[in-house]
Amino acid sequence: KHLFSCSGTIVEFLKGVGCVVTSASLVKLPHQDEIADKLKVNVCLPSGETLEGSVSNVDFCYNICVVHVRSTSQLPAKRFSADTTFFNFDDCHSKDVVALGRLCKRWSLNVASGKLTPRRSQFDCEELLVSSCRISKRGVGGPLMDFDGNIIGMNFYDKKETPFVPGFIMLKCLQHFNDFGRVIRPLHGLRVKTLHEEQLTVLEKIHLVFPGVCGVIVEKVQVPSPEHSEIKVGDIITHVDGIPFSSAAEFGGILLDTCGQHMLERQKLGLPENDNQMSTVISLKFDVKTQRGRKSEKTTRTINVDKFTPSGKLNRWPLGRAYLLRRIENGILYTEERYG
């Protein structure tokens, strides 16, 4: 039974083994955060050669899958970009991007151009950014590139836009796979979104009280409970452990770095990796700007994290239905493109 077809990027080729990064939708059971049993993965190279791949690592939170493939010939590889400045909408540089995807045909390449857009994806994952490129489901897992040839993200499918995980998040996840065999995130209990994605009327009120503020705004408090948390819905977080950030993606990247550093220190000390054996695993200090009625203040709040976020059950990754986009003028069909 055919499960799914998508695109991917070879990010490393070492000692005859290629490392292909793609979407976990390739190996995921429908409507379940589980890998399909007795899975066979075929990797179709641009030359038309088909190699058998093996699943190395999967994370359903970011919907990332790493496939290893053996090859007797050198496979071209290109890493994700670690640059975060491309996603700063306060800068005046070009936001032109291109999404790439593959069919199984020899030397086939699907290309869709567009721009980065300063709005939030409809998907749950907070770190996702959005481009106006229009891709099909075959383009899922493919690279998003700037016009300088840098891979700045990995694409997912939506009808009217293309959500993507930024390249710097992808690099951190791959490092976690290499160091720990999984991606480790702190279960801090906050759902946030980038501040500039808030409604204009809300932003105007915020900037009257806190001019020039940037960061994330808290949308939901889940753990331990809203009534016991010092951080409330509507609070603005600007720093984590003294490190400033301007978006939910950068916020998530800092937390990945914090968890990675903490786990490496535990490994050096020979401590077990059972995350629940310590009363407090990580203490996260957030610089918070709050407004309660007419009272506003700047403060530091601490959340003690004693668990890490599981790989699945946090974010949904719908693929949507296939549809046709037709351009008709004066009753004449000029173009017809299938998406999905």
Write the layout of secondary structure elements.
Blueprint: E1 8-14, E2 17-23, E3 41-44, E4 50-59, E5 64-70, E6 96-101, E7 110-117, E8 129-131, E9 143-146, E10 151-155, E11 162-166, H1 167-180, E12 190-194, H2 200-209, E13 216-221, E14 236-240, E15 243-244, H3 248-268, E16 282-292, E17 295-305, E18 323-329, E19 332-339
Antiparallel strand pairs: 1-2, 2-5, 3-4, 4-5, 6-7, 6-9, 7-8, 8-11, 9-10, 10-11, 12-13, 13-14, 14-15, 14-16, 16-17, 18-19
Pfam families: Trypsin_2
Protein name: PDZ domain-containing protein
Organism: Aegilops tauschii subsp. strangulata (Goatgrass)
Which keywords apply here?
36% strand; mainly beta; 340 residues; Thrombin, subunit H; Pdz3 Domain; 6-stranded antiparallel barrel; globular; 6-stranded antiparallel beta sheet
CATH superfamily of the domain at 184-305: PDZ domain
Helix content: 10-25%
How are the strands of the biggest sheet laid out side by side?
A: 6-7-8-11-10-9
Estimate the strand proportion: 35-45%
What is the strand tally? Answer: 19
> Which architecture of the domain at 184-305 per CATH?
Roll
What is the H/E string?
Answer: EEEEEEEEEEEHEHEEEHEEEE
Rg (CA only): 21 Å
C-alpha termini separation: 19 Å
- Please give the largest β-sheet: 6 strands, antiparallel, barrel
The class by helix and strand makeup works out as mainly beta
The CATH topology of the domain at 184-305 comes to Pdz3 Domain
What best-fitting shape do the alpha-carbon axes yield? Answer: globular
Q: What count of helical segments does DSSP give? A: 3
Broad CATH class of the domain at 184-305: Mainly Beta
Query: What is the residue-mean pLDDT, rounded to a whole number?
Result: 86
Which runs of at least 5 residues are low in confidence (pLDDT < 50)? 275-279
InterPro entries: PDZ_sf, Peptidase_S1_PA
Pfam families: Trypsin_2 (PF13365)
Protein name: PDZ domain-containing protein
Organism: Aegilops tauschii subsp. strangulata
